[in-house]
Amino acid sequence: MAEELRTGAGGIGGLLQLLREHGEAIEFDVARYWPGRSLLELYRGEMSWRELSVFIRYLPPDSATARALHRRSPEEEFWTPERHLAAATVDGVNFGNALAAYIASDPKKRGRFKAPPPIERPGVKRSKGKSIRFGGRHGSGARELSQVFGGAAAHQ
């Protein structure tokens, strides 16, 4: 938040500009993070411009004011780095569980291994997902693995 305040005009002029552009978000944040206070107090003289400046400078990244300044969509706001990591963890666990079930299944009845689809999230493209046929001439799926990883398979 502090960087955004420093890029424009300083002092009361900068705060006035910020209020003109993002007044509703600031009003919402004052009510949310400063219970019992209102932006009207500024106009009544019950809140100083310095108090407002300090309040805005130290708003958390998930505040309405920060979202307005960064112009992020609600979907982008929802997918924080922590949520991306949690989704990646769930994807990994799901993959491991599916692979374990595949390995434990009857080799005569199983076909190709198909990985479960990942959790959909912005910025992560869903791949077609190559299936790998285990077994075959060497029992390892070496040819398919070499195509996936882009190298030459041993014993072809």
Task: Characterise this structure.
- With 156 residues, the chain is an all-alpha fold.
- The chain has eight helices and no strands.
- The chain has helices at residues 2-7, 11-33, 40-44, 49-57, 64-70, 74-78, 81-104, 142-149.
- α2 crosses α4 and α2 crosses α5.
- The longest helix has 24 residues, at 81-104.
- The N and C termini lie far apart (59 Å).
What number is the mean pLDDT? 79
Q: List SSEs in N-to-C order.
A: HHHHHHHH
The largest sheet is: none
- In terms of DSSP E residues, the strand content is under 5%
Radius of gyration: 27 Å
Structural class: mainly alpha
Which percent bin holds the helix content?
55-70%
Question: N- to C-terminal separation?
Answer: 59 Å
Count of discrete structural domains: 2
Number of strands: 0
Per DSSP, the total helix count is: 8
Name the shape in a single word: rod-shaped
Low-pLDDT runs: none
Quick summary of this structure?
56% of the residues lie in helices and 0% in strands.
Keywords for this structure?
156 residues, mainly alpha, rod-shaped
SSE topology sketch:
Layout: H1 2-7, H2 11-33, H3 40-44, H4 49-57, H5 64-70, H6 74-78, H7 81-104, H8 142-149
